[in-house]
Write a structure and sequence with these properties.
The chain has four helices and six strands. It is of the alpha+beta class.
Length: 140
Amino acid sequence: MRFMVIVKANKDSEAGVLPDEKMLNAMGKFNEELVKAGVMLAGEGLQPSSKGTRIRFSGGKRTVIDGPFAESKELVAGFWLWQVKSKAEAIEWLKRAPFEDAEVEIRQLFGTADVAPSDPSGEVRKKEGDLRKKIESQRR
């Protein structure tokens, strides 16, 4: 099972304030544990929303909206992509994260089997599988 672990923004992350050296070291150590255990597939911090842009789709219309965006508690400051056996395992790993004051969300990703009812011929899943193989081969 794959999960996206979403670290919510706060006033410091939205101001572009980076964690101090102690937190960077603690997070680095935690990330090393995740990698060593084969859990972490990816993970990054994000620049503040003031450097971001949203595109709103409404029918055929596209509207470009530059940041910053209101409600920092609803924004994302960083993420991990984890491969674990269960949601319970993801929760146990996240409890070990070195955060002192944060809100983090865990959400399972859809797998190809999840879309089977909407793809009775299997054609969409086959194309998706081919794309994943191509992406993986480009990483090497």
